[in-house]
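For reference, the entry.
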Amino acid sequence: MARDTLRFGVSLIPALDVAAVRARAVVAEEGGLDLVGVQDHPYVPSSLDTFVVLGHLLAATRRISVFPDVANLPLRPPALLAKTAAALDVVSGGRFELALGAGGYWDAITRMGVPRRSSREANVALREAITVLRALWSDDAAPVETAGEYYSLAGVPAGPAPAHPIEIWTGAQGPEALALTGEIADGWAAPIAAYLPYEKWGEAHRLIDEAAVAAGRDPASVRRIAQVVGTITTAKGRPRLDDGAAPVRGTAGQWAEVLARLGTEQPFTSFVFWPEQETTGQIAAFAGEVVPEARRLLESWTA
């Protein structure tokens, strides 16, 4: 694994206390982290709109990149999502990436007026959405014409183009979505273990790799992002990432070893911390104590 591909970040909730969310993002940037994710559950009344918060965080920072973790596709049509993503990328000078989910909490989603989709339907829609996004971000002068089962465009002019090539990461869980990721996506933002238990991560990588090879792609070109929930403690714990969904609770040194093992035993090159208690202290500890040691271990273990 090339060291220059390593990225570390934190995932935040778009809480109503936007000043607190902003302070956490600033601490992440000041600590040298590369990414801030903002969770996207539009049906939660105690959350602000994720894309508004992402724009606010971009305005409050200068270096760190942001991404929705992950964008709720059924509630965010891809043509408008393409425009929003490109705008955020342009105004930030190329600091926006797009993680995309096919839909999870369908009872909540359908209450907002969107029809329920089966797993097959959701995956078809995800494939079509990626096609639409890339077409609208292109510099092709021809209007975009697509005829899909869920998303069709009738001569929509492309643009604006993003400031940099926005990566599209999926939050895939099932076999079909994982294969789609290997075939056409830029990366996989592994769902937290509550959604996809640790023991299933290895098989997920295999499905992504096989689909990438079948599509004529280098599997290493598909970015793998481990998202790990837990707490950085002062007392030693017994963190395990071999099965189940238990949060990681341990010292900074134990966290560093957990992440380094993920980066050597599996093809993860990016690591996103989901703090159980979302505080600036936890984020500062991750950035200042966990990340430098994880980098050191990864360097020594793969030398």
